[in-house]
Amino acid sequence: MSKKKFHDIWVNQSRLGDEFNMSAIAMGKKLKELGLRQPDGTPTPKALEEGYCTSTPLKNGTPFYMWHRGKVKTLLQTNGLQALNEQEMRCKELAERLIEAEHLFDQGQDKIAYMVQDSLSGEIKPDDIPVINRFLKELSSIQQLEDDSLSN
After folding, report:
1. Do 54 and 110 share a domain, yes or no?
2. Beta-carbon neighbour count of residue 147 at 10 Å?
3. For 96-139, how does the pLDDT look when each residue is reduced to its tens digit (9 = 90+)?
């Protein structure tokens, strides 16, 4: 069995939010509700002592904290939040990349936009389309994929 890497166990607040389809700010508020963050945003003694969080200062000495993915995820789920499954995580990322291509088209960078779209076509499976469309809608995009959009 391979040893887990640091980044498999510890994640920043943004990544933790991604796993629950929340912004980093919304995740921060949720961590405060659960008693893991103080009003000033720093972890509570409980979060540090019980291993929910670890200090990983930046190179310049600025305080920075990483969250234990498994422990925090379990606590959030116990408190009623639903994590995205693997397909949803992948489809959300694909939707974000489709929106990126849409922005490139809007900026007149059609060649790059087509390259982004082309790279995505091989990653999208037919059963991903409804999930991607859900995230496109949630992310305020007017674009939606059609079942035959993969064969173009």
Report:
1. no
2. 9
3. 999 999 999 999 999 999 998 888 888 999 999 999 999 999 98
